[in-house]
Specification:
Strand order of the largest sheet: 1-2-3
Shape: flat
Distance between the termini: 29 Å
Number of helices: 5
Strand content: 15-25%
Helix content: 25-40%
Structural class: alpha/beta
Largest sheet: 3 strands, parallel
Length: 153
Amino acid sequence: MTTLLQISDPHFGTVQPDVLGALLRMANAQLPDLLVLSGDITQRARPVQFRAARALMDRLGAPLLAIPGNHDIPLFNLWARLRHPYARHCAAFGPELEPVFRSPGLLVIGVNTTRAHRHEDGEVSAAQVDRVAGLLATATAAQLRVVVVHQPI
């Protein structure tokens, strides 16, 4: 059986040690085939918060698919927000903002719904819908198909 562990809105920077301990125990018991971080990984997109999140994901020891949330874009540093909104996310989780994971039992498609010019409301473009539809069309009958977004569609 394929196991996917989705973690959404952990808001590193506000995380409590007891909660992290419980998450580690659960993940070690479940042994997920894939970890999915579905946005708001950090509270304020600070490098230390991204490093803490990455360190925990590395401890869990499974493949990782991470997409940004609105809290993962700098809020108060307008220069960074407008010029390099995803730089800190990419430094921690790699350059792909819409990653895809494929295995015999899974097809997981990340969709970046954040927009640097808006802090709260997400958006899915027509190009993103087309991309997802094309990827879903390539799935095999044995693959569970999962589309991951941060904000509600």
